[in-house]
Amino acid sequence: MLRWSEGERGGGYNIRGLQNRLAIGQYDTLASPPLGDVVMTDLPEVMPLLQMNIDGNKALWTEQRGRAIAKVLKWGPMVGDLDIPSILLVADCVYYDQSAEPLIETICALTDEDTDVIISQEDREQEKLQKLWQYFLSLLCQKFDVTWVPVELQHPHFSSPDIILLRARKKLHPM
Q: Which domains does the chain have, with CATH numbers?
């Protein structure tokens, strides 16, 4: 996700980013260095693993003049002390029925018209998850202008045909 975004935005400058509930692993490791300041969020029970990942990659982030911190984020309209980022990454977050509306509320609360929202989601085969994804997209499109990023425009080493990549910007006059 970030490799594509870095090319789109030109890279090379400090961007305040927020990573929203990503799996612990490769995304976290790749996120901070090219962006500068990154806030990685998840539920309270995941914080020890997230902090371990940050600590384990501190030398890399320092070398790249980046910084990463972990914060708890429960989805909904109240996002606490989190600032509005330049880029909001949402990775594989649509996975159960009750997640769509709180996730949209969170994305709305954490963005303004200048925030790039980059969403990746595995294209799941189960009918129930496909319907949930369509519902999430319908809610997202009410509040955001959404662009699908074709695989051809994504970095060849960091893309997959079964991963959907979207770019969204908050509408000035949402429905």
A: 2-170 (3.40.50.150)
Residue 72 has which token pair? 């708890």
CA-to-CA distance for 28 and 49, rounded, in angstroms? 11
How many C-beta neighbours within 10 Å does residue 48 have? 11
Q: Report the alpha-carbon distance of residue 84 to residue 64 in Å, rounded.
A: 23
CA 4 to each of CA 32, 100, 118, 156, 157: distance values in angstroms, whole numbers, following the listed order: 14, 25, 10, 10, 11
- Quote the pLDDT of residue 64: 78
Q: Give per-10-residue mean pLDDT for the chain (175 aa).
A: 49 45 44 65 89 90 83 87 88 86 94 92 84 95 95 82 91 79
Question: How far apart are alpha carbons 17 and 40 in whole angstroms?
Answer: 9
3-state secondary structure of 139: helix
